[in-house]
Design brief:
Elements lengths: L1 H13 L5 H62 L3 H20 L6 H21 L2 E3 L11 E8 L8 E6 L2 E3 L2 E4 L1 E7 L2
Parallel strand pairs: 2-6
Antiparallel strand pairs: 1-4, 3-6, 4-5
Helix pairs in contact: 1-2, 3-4
């Protein structure tokens, strides 16, 4: 661009050599200065448009991210809030039967019938809980500190060390996680 300007100025100086050469030089200079500014203004306008477009994209992406974070938080809260829904659904029939048993027991009900009803209710409740993954901790195996809690030891030479002799409180697992260890009495040789 400067080369073109220098040529234009040289051409003007080489022309007639009269007083209008100064005027022609000024006009050429003004015209040449106007052209680059028009280019700069166009480039500036294009950059401003591009900036506005990128700014808009940024704001939209930021808003999308905020919405996604809020949605994930709501979903997590709902998951925690309703996590027990399957378990509760599974035990509702047993609860209904407890209500029925309570209404059906009266002064004429025999002791044996009451015990039988309680046993059936317990079995139904356990079946309902097994359906959602509850299992009893195995106490037929030797003592395992991860599954059992020994609260007492009994000397018994006829049994191997660490054999579970008595279960005082059953332990339970949910799938592969221990919810409660079994409270047991174990044998010792000494």
């Amino acid at each position: 661009m400067n080369d073109t300007l220098d040529k234009d100025i040289n051409n003007l100086h080489q022309a007639d050599g009269k007083d209008n050469s100064k005027k022609a030089t000024d006009e050429a200079w003004t015209q040449n200065q106007a052209s680059p500014n028009q280019g700069n203004e166009a480039a500036q306008a294009e950059l401003q448009n591009k900036y506005a477009e990128l700014d808009d994209q940024y704001k939209r992406l930021w808003a999308d991210q905020q919405n996604m974070i809020k949605r994930n938080q709501r979903e997590r809260q709902d998951l925690l809030k309703y996590a027990a829904a399957n378990t509760v659904e599974a035990i509702l029939p047993a609860l209904d039967n407890f209500e029925f048993a309570k209404k059906s027991i009266n002064a004429n009900t025999s002791h044996e019938e009451v015990i039988k009803s309680i046993g059936m209710l317990q079995e139904q409740l356990l079946m309902s809980l097994r359906a959602v993954g509850l299992t009893e901790v195995n106490t037929s195996i030797p003592f395992n500190a991860e599954l059992h809690e020994a609260i007492s030891k009994i000397k018994d030479a006829s049994k191997e060390e660490g054999t579970i002799i008595e279960v005082l409180k059953k332990g339970f697992m949910l799938n592969d996680k221990v919810l409660r260890v079994a409270t047991v009495v174990v044998s010792t040789k000494e």
